[in-house]
Amino acid sequence: MPKPTKLRNRYYVRMPVLASDGRTKYKWIALGTTNLAEAQRRLMEVLAYKELIREGEDVEFFWRTGKPNSVKRIFLFEMTKKYLSWTKRRNQRLKTSTQEIYRCAMEHLIKALGKNFLIENISRKDLEKFRESFSDDLSLHTVKKNERAVQTFLRWLKDEGVIASVPKLRPLRIPRQQPVYVSEKELELIKVETTPFMAKVFQMYLETGMRLSEAFLGEIKNTFLVIQGADGAKNGMVREIPLKPEHIEIIQEMRTRGWTPKHYSRTFWKACIDAEVEGKKFHSLRHTFGIMSWLRDRDIFLTMKMMGHSNISTTQIYTQFHLSRIQEDFPSLVKETGKVIPFRSSSVG
């Protein structure tokens, strides 16, 4: 039988709770007193609700609320609202894009389960229902991004004592695809369909391998753009991007003009349509840099450093193209290095 336990000069009782996976876990319930006799009397109140507590119900006792004992119902809509408010207060420097991911994920969760869903009852089946609620036209990467945001929300609920454990969902498998790059010919066609300034912007991103948002982050120091982890580097690491003088001028002008990153992305997309270049996104310029960096130096670790990757397996996707195709798409690079393609002698021995 549970007994009052003194912790930090106040009494608590440890009660069993049945987790969603069938295992028994425990939660501490404050008895709200420093007096043992009173703690024993209040223990009897707690034991009267032991089955409800075991099933995961949140019971509010009179010594905490000043009202008669009652079973508290915690609804999904209420907790998502509190969570989003907490993330803004706790993470003052959280990127707007990350806040938007959290907000969208909470909206999807409410749409899938209903705003009056009792969050303390959430299980793996509910998370599977959440996964299945996404439309087929959304990419698997978008679905996975939302699932990660929901897992972060659930861990917060556990820390807050709302749920006893975080239900696990089988990881979503995403087939690794080759990066989509822009060939030399395609880039020239795209640049013709936009303004001279935008053409310079596109060329700079291809030559530096920056992510779209990185030109607006960090500080220019000598010939480097230095982005601290807290300033928005994707993996939290310090990122140093080498710059040419013309790159510095372009970045400064981009910041002066005040256009958002989305404006540059849309302009690139429109130029691709006008140039009849299909299947390319602004991020394709970064992929192009990754391929060209690898082909110039054949040093996978240097390419990883230049790309700002934290895991070399991410960088290895740039080594998996057919060299004959690269020769056709980047003729100037072949001419520049003289070693991109290991040409074989045409003579037969």
Features:
single chain, 349 residues, mainly alpha, DNA polymerase, domain 1, hpI Integrase, Chain A, three-stranded antiparallel β-sheet, 16 helices, elongated
SSE topology sketch:
Elements: E1 5-7, E2 10-18, E3 24-30, H1 36-47, H2 50-54, E4 58-60, H3 62-65, E5 70-72, H4 76-90, H5 96-113, H6 124-132, H7 140-159, H8 184-192, H9 196-208, E6 219-221, E7 224-227, E8 239-242, H10 245-257, H11 261-275, H12 284-297, H13 300-307, H14 312-315, H15 323-329, H16 331-337
Antiparallel strand pairs: 1-2, 2-3, 4-5, 6-7, 7-8
Helix pairs in contact: 4-5, 5-7, 8-9, 8-11, 9-10, 9-12, 12-13
Radius of gyration: 28 Å
Main sheet attributes: strand count, strand direction, barrel closure = 3 strands, antiparallel
CATH architecture of the largest domain: Orthogonal Bundle
Total domain modules: 3
**What is the helix tally?**
16
CA-CA gap between termini: 89 Å
As for the CATH topology of the largest domain, it is: hpI Integrase, Chain A
Please write the string of helix (H) and strand (E) elements. EEEHHEHEHHHHHHEEEHHHHHHH
The chain-level structural class is mainly alpha
The number of strands is 8
Strand content: 5-15%
**What's the overall average pLDDT, rounded?**
87
> Strands of the biggest beta sheet: in what spatial order?
1-2-3
CATH superfamily of the largest domain: Intergrase catalytic core
Return the CATH class of the largest domain: Mainly Alpha
